């Protein structure tokens, strides 16, 4: 580290002041300075100081480490979690300028967490750290419990992980409604909630499912606002650093780093780039007040649908592709005829729009669970659907049938109690 | 007045490796997945006749984190350089730009591929196999590679060879060194938690040792008649290929003879055995008799441990059944093991396997059915299980 904590604090004071003057409204900020290895670990555990043990975090660690080793991805500049106070990590090995840029970036994320409706209503930042710690402790207790043990717990976590995004999609304040009678509330999009309410598995298993559901609900606002959140943070780090009177050396590095962050990924889609461009455009067209309103109320899909314009599509050279056989073909380009379809496709394919929508529609007399995939032209990956159904049977204890469409026809997958699969039209 | 708090976690000199347990568990599951998949690899046609150093890619299943996700037939949006036109092809390996953590089309990145040589695969698989019922015969002996002998330690190795005690010692050494360093730097010497790191791990080095074993002869007999269509022949060849690899790997000095038969039998060389195409009727007895003849002239059971392996689809001409049973009984008498693998039998008629198992009660006769190539490995394992029937 070729700079001292004092220096970081010096820059932080300036950044914090400028951010406040711009009108950003954030939680109290805490920075932890960590090493490269610690950063890898924090990344695997999504920044949480404590999490329950599970091999998927080990896998995440190995994957990130491998990617870094082969330089396929840059080291993360930032790692920030939605908590109050807001906890963020700064990697010791980064240059002073990168730390300055990261700090500014983090204040904007912090502001987004505190003000965006999805976070305000869907999460409780005061208890984030506690919640993850409580879950970790409880799972460790189950593992230590001789009547349960590691393998049992792992099997339940595996199963609950497979279904973790099959939870309610509307985000609102308050408790989930309680139904006292034994009548099923149908249709139900919240598969995990349905299991918690009606499955006859042991209570500790339900508790595990409940914990994983709670964590998923915590993460969904982030999934839903990836483009906005990164665009917002990039927009503000740029504005803040411009105001900082950086010495020339640092200033040049700032411009280079900033351009790297918001560079388009050819053949892919860089959320920093798209979000940054849209916010920049909104500010130019409607003034600064407008972007604060947008930050309050939108999520990626509405953000794209409302504010991605023909001009922006053209500036970013956006195109739409489809897969035909084993090849990708360009379907639409950003001209007068094509841009609206591009906008709508992107709006439908971000956030939870990438997660298939599946409902419980019925429970038969013998407790067979009937699921229906609401087909919108996108087919399920059958191998994954089958394996996921097996996990569901683990938690439901009775057969499960999934209705979907495949190859233009009705298609059913049946998974019995013994987890053997039958499929058919 | 600014509020931010800075914590330098580096004032704490103790390394903190919180992910080590989850990584260990993950690694264990990976290894298990590899082992579970090896048999599948062996049943792939492409490995027959390949050199043992050929590398194959093993896709590792079982580590995917399954969820409901969309297939690859969905559309998407990406940014380009402005030269794109409708209908342009943009390659087949497009990266999904929107595949963020926890959502969406992340199937691609879940695929692990492990490069491994055929030799390595066999090593893993053959760990638990042995030619059963090896008697100590009198005269000349063969050398058997026995890899049980440990000889020192090394830093890399496979999990089963982890040297726990040595590993703990390495950790203690490191801890002592840390303490000494802290003392020299005049820092407080209290290390609360001191977990294992990768560098502590030590593995036993295995010295290859040869052990004297008795003489062994293997007779491979294969039905190459007309009813053995290409798929069956392929399965039979895969079976013998793995078997011969196994024998050559485990036993340095084994005599192997190859017999191919239709209504008549012939002793052939290894190349012919694996490549020859024939057609014609089936007298199983011809193959078995040829084997008996070879045993009588070259491998006197007084001095040799003889193993006979036979593969057929079991579709014998009925006038030959009597003779076949008689010859099979004779083979059981002179051999340590007579094993028969019936590949993809026709279900509508009673095959020779049914007749043989009904007639032959000798304990050294084993018959297995292999109706799909996935079952090849299980069949072989049944035949070569270690310590079979109290054998040596």
Please tell me about this protein's structure.
The complex is a heterodimer of chains A (425) and B (392). Chain A contains 17 helices and ten strands. Chain A has a five-stranded mixed beta sheet with strand order 6-7-8-9-10. In chain A, strands 1-3-2 form a three-stranded mixed beta sheet. A two-stranded antiparallel sheet of chain A has the order 4-5. Chain A is 53% helix and 14% strand. The longest helix of chain A is centred in the middle third of the chain and has 22 residues, at 203-224. Chain A has helices at residues 5-22, 36-44, 55-69, 96-115, 117-122, 128-144, 149-162, 191-198, 203-224, 226-242, 248-261, 271-286, 288-297, 300-307, 310-315, 339-348, 382-396; strands at 29-34, 79-81, 86-91, 318-324, 327-333, 358-363, 369-373, 400-406, 409-415, 421-424. In chain A, a hairpin with a 5-residue loop joins strand 9 and strand 10 (421-424). Chain B folds into three domains: 21-41 and 53-64 and 112-117, no CATH class; 151-206, no CATH class; 210-390, Rossmann fold (3-Layer(aba) Sandwich). In chain B, 32% of the residues lie in helices and 21% in strands. Chain B contains nine helices and 14 strands. Chain B has a six-stranded mixed beta sheet with strand order 11-10-9-12-13-14, sandwiched between helices. Chain B has a two-stranded antiparallel ribbon with strand order 2-4. In chain B, strands 5-8 form a two-stranded antiparallel sheet. In chain B, a hairpin with a 3-residue loop joins strand 10 (254-261) and strand 11. In chain B, helix 6 packs parallel to helix 7 (321-334). Chain B is flat, with a radius of gyration of 29 Å. Chains A and B meet through helix 1, strand 1, helix 2, helix 3 and helix 7 of A and strand 1, helix 1 and strand 3 of B. Strand 1 (29-34) of chain A pairs parallel with strand 1 (5-8) of chain B, so a sheet runs across the interface.
């Amino acid at each position: 580290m070729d700079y001292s904590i004092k220096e970081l604090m010096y820059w932080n004071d300036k950044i914090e002041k400028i951010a406040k003057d711009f009108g950003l409204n954030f939680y109290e900020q805490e920075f932890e300075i960590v090493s490269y290895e610690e950063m890898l670990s924090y990344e695997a555990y999504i920044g949480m100081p404590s999490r329950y043990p599970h091999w998927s975090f080990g896998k995440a660690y190995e994957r990130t480490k491998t990617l870094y080793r082969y330089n396929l991805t840059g080291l993360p500049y930032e790692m920030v979690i939605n908590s109050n106070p807001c906890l963020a990590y700064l990697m010791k090995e980064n240059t002073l300028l990168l730390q300055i840029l990261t700090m500014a970036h983090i204040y904007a994320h912090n502001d987004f967490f505190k003000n965006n409706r999805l976070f305000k209503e869907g999460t409780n930042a005061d208890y984030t750290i506690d919640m993850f710690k409580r879950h970790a402790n409880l799972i460790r207790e189950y593992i230590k419990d001789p009547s349960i043990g590691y393998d049992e717990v792992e099997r339940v976590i595996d199963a609950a992980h497979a279904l973790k995004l099959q939870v309610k999609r509307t985000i609102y304040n308050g408790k989930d409604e309680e139904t006292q009678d034994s009548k099923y509330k149908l249709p139900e999009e919240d598969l995990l909630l349905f299991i918690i309410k009606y499955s006859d598995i042991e209570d500790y298993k339900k508790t595990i499912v409940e914990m994983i559901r709670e964590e998923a609900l915590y993460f969904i606002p982030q999934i839903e606002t990836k483009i906005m959140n990164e665009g917002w943070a990039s927009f503000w780090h740029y504005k803040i650093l411009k105001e900082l009177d950086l010495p020339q050396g640092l200033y040049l590095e700032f411009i280079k780093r900033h351009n790297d962050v918001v560079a388009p990924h050819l053949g892919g889609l860089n959320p920093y780039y798209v979000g940054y461009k849209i916010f920049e455009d909104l500010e130019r067209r409607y003034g600064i007040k407008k972007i604060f309103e947008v930050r309050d109320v939108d999520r990626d899909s509405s953000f794209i649908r409302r504010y991605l314009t023909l001009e922006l599509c053209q500036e970013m050279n956006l195109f739409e592709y489809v897969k035909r056989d084993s090849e990708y073909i360009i379907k639409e380009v950003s001209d007068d005829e094509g841009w609206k379809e591009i906008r709508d496709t992107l709006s439908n394919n971000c956030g939870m729009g990438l997660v298939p929508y599946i409902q419980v529609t019925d429970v038969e007399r013998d407790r067979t669970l009937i699921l229906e995939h609401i087909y919108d032209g996108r087919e399920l990956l059958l191998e994954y659907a089958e394996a996921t159904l097996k996990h569901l049977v683990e938690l439901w204890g009775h057969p499960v049938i999934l209705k979907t469409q495949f190859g233009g026809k009705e298609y059913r997958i049946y998974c019995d109690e013994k987890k053997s699969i039958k499929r058919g039209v | 007045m600014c509020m931010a708090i800075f914590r330098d976690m580096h004032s704490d000199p103790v390394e903190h490796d919180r992910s080590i347990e989850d990584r260990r568990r993950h690694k264990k599951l990976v290894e298990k997945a590899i082992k579970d998949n090896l048999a599948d690899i062996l049943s792939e046609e492409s490995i027959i006749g390949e050199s043992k150093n050929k590398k194959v890619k093993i896709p590792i299943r079982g580590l995917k984190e399954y969820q409901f996700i969309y297939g690859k037939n969905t559309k998407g949006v990406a940014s380009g350089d402005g030269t794109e036109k409708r209908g342009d092809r943009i390659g087949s390996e497009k990266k999904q730009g929107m595949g963020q953590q926890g959502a969406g089309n992340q199937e691609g990145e879940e695929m692990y591929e492990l490069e491994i040589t055929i030799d390595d695969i066999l090593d893993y698989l053959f760990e638990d196999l042995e030619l059963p019922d090896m008697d100590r015969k009198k005269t000349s002996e063969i050398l058997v590679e026995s890899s049980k002998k440990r000889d020192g330690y090394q830093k890399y190795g496979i999990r089963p060879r982890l040297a726990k005690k040595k590993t703990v010692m390495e950790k203690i050494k490191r801890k002592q060194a840390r303490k000494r360093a802290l003392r020299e730097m005049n820092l407080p010497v209290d290390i609360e938690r001191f977990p294992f790191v990768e560098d502590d791990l030590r593995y036993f080095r295995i010295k290859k040792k040869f052990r004297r074993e008795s003489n062994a002869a293997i007779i491979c007999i294969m039905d190459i008649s007309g009813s053995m269509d290409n798929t069956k022949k392929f399965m039979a060849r895969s079976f013998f290929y793995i078997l011969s690899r196994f024998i050559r790997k485990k036993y340095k000095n084994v005599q192997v003879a190859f017999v191919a038969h239709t209504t008549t039998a012939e002793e052939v060389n290894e190349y012919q055995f694996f490549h020859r195409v024939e057609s014609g009727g089936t007298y199983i007895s011809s193959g078995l008799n040829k084997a008996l003849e070879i045993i009588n002239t070259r491998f006197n059971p007084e001095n040799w441990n003889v193993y006979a392996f036979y593969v057929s689809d079991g579709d014998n001409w009925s006038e030959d059944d009597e003779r076949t049973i008689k010859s099979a009984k004779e083979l059981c008498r002179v051999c340590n093991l007579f094993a028969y693998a019936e590949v993809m039998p026709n279900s509508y008629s009673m095959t020779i396997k049914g007749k043989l198992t009904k007639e032959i009660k000798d304990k050294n006769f084993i018959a297995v059915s292999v109706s799909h190539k996935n079952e090849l490995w299980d069949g072989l394992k049944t035949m070569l299980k270690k310590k079979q029937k109290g054998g040596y």
